[in-house]
Amino acid sequence: MAAARTYVDFVPSHDLVEDRGKHTLVVNLPGFKKEHLRVQIDNYGRLRVSGERQLEGGQWSRFRKEFQVPEGCDAGGIRARFEKDGVLNVTMPRLTPLEDDPKAAADAAADAEAARLAAADAEEKKRRDEMEEDARKRHAGDEEEHASGEGEDAHHQAVQAASAGRQAYGFARDRSRSGMVRALLLAVAVALVGAAGLYARYRSMDPSAESETAPADGAIVSLFDY
Questions:
Q1: Widest CA span of the chain, in angstroms?
Q2: Given pLDDT bands bounded at 50, 70 and 90, which one contains residue 191?
Q3: Which fold has domain 7-93?
Q4: Looking at the keywords, is rRNA-binding present (predicted)?
Q5: Where do the domains of the chain lie?
């Protein structure tokens, strides 16, 4: 006859985590394996999680825990999964996911609007900077063109002045030459007149000389199945 088992009962630690799409029952079962556990649900919406495993010296460790499935959950969609680190996760999906928290939604909308305004401000600043840079370049180009035009005007005026000076010098030189010629001609004429006078005087003194004439110039896993 086999000896009766001796059980050591314990209560595992657990937690119920909620989000907008489901509830998740998290049970901590260190030392257990998947084949030591059983997960069941009855017609009254009660969820039962139980298990047992052998300890040293012929003793057995066991537990049994019941939970009420939260209202609004889909009983046919409940699934359990045992993780390698000794944690059992039982997920209970909501029939209708919760709507977002109005305050959280308002905060998210405000953050999105603030980000949009910041981006718009940055774009507007960039556009203004580009316009200012274009205006500065155009202004610098206008000044350079104006300075170039003034230089060309000054050069043109200098050329005109030099030309006028050459013309004046030439005119003065021509006038000087003309005056010299006239003076020379006058001196010649005076000399001729004087000579003529002398000759006439000589002639008048020499009654014997013959008469003569002077010459002319010009850019999720299902419930455990055991």
A1: 206
A2: low
A3: Immunoglobulin-like (2.60.40)
A4: no
A5: 7-93, 100-193
